[in-house]
Amino acid sequence: MHFKCISGQVFTCPLVFVSINEHKMIAGSLFKIKKGLKKEWIDWCAEIQNIRRSEAIETLKEEKVIQEAFVFFEVDDVEYTLGISEGENLPANNERDINKIHKEKKKKCLEYIGKVDTLYHLKSKDE
């Protein structure tokens, strides 16, 4: 099995993802990116990170999420994205534009594969 990062670096390794830890503080979901929609998904993620950052952080606060990330990777020429969040993960406010768009983009661009479990989670600094 070949694992390729967005940078193009290729690794050969087993891919193992296991659904939410016992404390339910770290949540994750694995998605396959639908054919031909990688650019749209990556552009949306860049918009969240750069243009809509303040609005995104406000939604995280409402949802009691400490941090959230989406990563991209490719395995055997199939493109995936993995979303991980830490916190209470309360339901999103669907009245917010960013949440409406995020839901639409996920529906259009992604195919849900399943939940992922946290195998370990370390921080070098206590909060």
Rounded to an integer in angstroms, the radius of gyration calculated over CA atoms is: 15 Å
CATH class: Alpha Beta
Largest sheet: 6 strands, antiparallel
| Average pLDDT over all residues | 84
Alpha-carbon distance between the two ends = 38 Å
CATH T-level fold name: Alpha-Beta Plaits
Low-confidence stretches: 10-23
The total of beta strands comes to 6
Please list the strands of the largest sheet in the order they lie side by side.
2-1-4-5-3-6
What level of helicity do the residues show? Answer: 25-40%
Domain count: 1
Describe this structure as you would to a colleague.
The termini are far apart. The chain has helices at 38-50, 53-62, 97-109; strands spanning 2-5, 10-12, 26-33, 65-75, 78-87, 110-116. The chain has 127 residues and is α+β, with helices and mostly antiparallel strands. It has one domain: Alpha-Beta Plaits. Strands 2-1-4-5-3-6 form a 6-stranded antiparallel sheet. Mean pLDDT is 84; it is low at 10-23. α1 runs antiparallel to α3 (97-109).
Short synopsis of the structure:
With 127 residues, the chain is an alpha+beta fold.
What labels would you give this structure?
Alpha-Beta Plaits, 3 helices, alpha+beta, single chain, 6-stranded antiparallel β-sheet, 127 residues, 34% strand
